[in-house]
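## Example record

The block below lists the input lines for one assembly entry, exactly as stored, with component labels intact.
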Amino acid sequence: MDLADFRKQFPALERKVYGKNLVYFDNAATIQRPACVIGLWDRLAVDSNANIHRAVHKLADEATEAYEQARLRVKDFINAASREEIVFTSGATASINLVAYSFGEKFVGRGDEIIVSAAEHHSDIVPWQLLCERKGAVLKVIPVDDSGHLDLNALEKLCSPRTRLAAVTHISNVLGLVNPVEEITRICHSRGVKVLIDGAQGIVHSKVDVTAIGCDFYAFSGHKVYAVPGTGVLYGRKELLDMMPPFMSGGEMVGTVSFSGTTFAPLPLKFEAGTQNFTGEATLRPALDLAEKINSDKELAGYIDGVRDYLYDSLLSFPGLKMFGTTDNLEEKIPLFSFCIDGVHHEDLALLLDKMGIAVRSGQMCAEPLMDRFGVTGMLRVSLAPYNTMEEAEYFMKSLARAVSMLK
Amino acid sequence: MNNQKSLQEIENEIVDEFSMFDDWLDKYEYLIELGKALKDYPEEKKTDDRLVKGCQSRVWIDFQMKDGRIFFNADSDAIITKGIISLLIKIYSGRTPEEILSSDFSVVERIGLKENLSPTRANGLVSMIAMIREIAAENR
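Predicted structure tokens for the full assembly:
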């Protein structure tokens, strides 16, 4: 795929900010959407706006078809065993909350334990903290070492007969390192511990095969992988989802309702109470089609790796710069770099870069415990997508140097 | 007293100064200089009660009363924020509480500062102004 042609699929990349070409390096927060996604979203809203599953008329049929086709696309994309294992949610946060509530309700009691890693996003910490408060359970934490890698030896020791579940990120949104989720799952399963993988970043940057990983749950958001905001997926093993009680209740998720009792719809609708974001979830289909195309394009992959390597080396040799999430093996690093520069506040840098046309992220990145771990109040993060170019990376490095010289 | 410029005159001067710069990068450069020039805020006064709530970066505001006027001092761990608070101090330090309370603080809008800050920064600016007003109200 020619990069210039590929970029043309993303209308936002053509815009200017403050009269300068936009350099969008905040892709880990949300990625720009391709025209095929925007087009489908628009078409469904105009032509096929009808509530799904229940009505028999033509519009409802089209809307339901688009929604369920997207479910099948997700199933194939992550290699789940069946469509029943794909629950649509509003995003990774909602997916994790669903498990924390429903799995917690069924399987977690007083004195039980939940494990998370020190590199988790708040969305993969707080739902577990609340679960532990509700149930009188204990939250344990896998530490990260100075380079940002999880301490798997510690994980082995943390797993006890009382541990019910471990929730670990596939790729940290701060460190950008791909965690060995297969090994983590193997360690946990050998001790009877269920595993949830937070795939918010993982779904974008690695080939996700939930069967190969072996995890019990995999959560991700649509908006980070080219689909529209307010969409997301919870993959769960059918056997477990079947045992778990509904999280939210109401329309769509029922079998029969009477005042003497209610039965629930079969999977996955059991977990999809209320009118779903049907025009949104449907966009996961073209979004994942595109993601697959990108994943299988060797030329593009080689180019992205080149940009990643250039930025990694350039940043590491930048005076006074400390990067978080370093490795000798760049294969395990996605093009996402969080760092601090001596004597310069990350927020000042972000403000100046913005005025140079570059969108980056500054602050705690929803990972305060990780900030504490590294003893900083915040970081600057640049996160790239496959549509970013070497020219943009070079312009970024020049701009960074200019911003630092203005501030020092 | 007579040789002191009125609050409005100072505000107009600041607006003029800002309008000299076409590019926002230049305006930031000016704020950075102001931030760097703001010095001598004692470490021991970086206390929670002097911390401005609602800022992404940390900002402390301290003050002293002298002859019925309020003299502000401030610091921040981010230099552009420090420049912004320095700008506010330039305008409002050495004024009586009544003068401060009579100002509508529209100067920040007139120089386009508010729109050109990220929403979190803009909130921080609002918080800084609120604290200055609060100090003025308490010392009336």
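The longest helix of chain A spans residues 58-78. The interface with chain B takes residues 18, 344-345, 347-348, 351-352, 354-356, 363, 377, 406-407 of chain A (CB under 8 Å).
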